[in-house]
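#struct-pred
JK: can someone run the complex with iron/sulfur cluster? inputs below
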Amino acid sequence: MAFETVKKNLEARGFSVSTFSTAAEAAAYLDSAIDGTTVGIGGSMTVQQMGLHEKLAAHNEVHWHWTDGPEVRAKAAHADVYITSANGLTENGEVINIDGAGNRVASTLYGHKRVYFIIGRNKLAPTYDEALWRARNIAAPKNAQRLGKKTPCAVKGDRCYDCKSPDRICRGLVVLWGPSMGVETEIVLVDEDLGL
Ligand code: SF4
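RT: done, structure tokens with the ligand placed:
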């Protein structure tokens, strides 16, 4: 996939951008770029697929609630570096995330010196409406299914039913039009399907 257009548009918004053909190359890059610091990681199938926690934990202080338990969320929120993915990315350079607990989206906005979004090609959509549709109707139902939530979307993982369930995982939507002021934000684009 040609990333030229989205890269140009992301850079025009103030994001740093790096591009990789494979997840393995992206993981090696992040493993060398992030060293001797504190790292928080948001819930992310992408990060899990890349084995990034294991790599980074060998030479950083890493906090990830998926591996270390829910109590490390507060430590993750105060780490110098934060890593997550996105539920959707528009060709125009808007980064879309839906969250339930809010820790992941909050950390993309505030509290860290540097934020990395690792985004596979499957997250890219031509327009805002299509990227939001993807986040709501592909990523969220599959996440609800993965988490075993009692929501209508989790039965088949087919689409969003805009449920009012107590188990609803879609509680907030954050769209980054650019990096938050004072937060160095890098988009790591990977030309492979990654995450949900
Ligand atoms: S709003 Fe409800 S139905 Fe829609 S994706 Fe989220 S959890 Fe599923």
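RT: quick notes.
The longest helix spans residues 128-146.
The chain has a mean pLDDT of 97.
JK: thanks, will look after standup
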